[in-house]
Design goal:
By secondary structure, the protein is of the alpha+beta class. It is built from 2 helices and 4 strands, in the order βαβαββ.
């Protein structure tokens, strides 16, 4: 799925800012909307997955390259 409603660029941010910023953005969204999160590496992957698991939001997909990771998250 490549369709999303909002985009959040967290490249270059250190922990705990990536999860904090993701949480803030999702808080502004309506249920069912999709957020695209772009990070500069694999460091946030486990944190984003944990955040989704703990909050009940759906991690639709994770796509990582050597330079960045992209997460699609559906708000529940």
């Amino acid at each position: 799925m490549s369709e999303y409603h909002f985009e959040l660029d967290i490249r270059g941010m250190n922990c705990p800012l990536p999860v904090f910023k993701t949480s803030q953005q999702i808080g502004k969204m309506n249920c069912g909307q999709v957020l695209r999160v772009i990070d500069s590496g694999l460091d946030s992957s486990a944190d984003i997955e944990s955040f989704c698991r703990e909050t009940g939001h759906e991690l639709i997909s994770t796509a990582c390259t050597r330079k960045s990771c992209e997460f699609l998250i559906r708000k529940h």
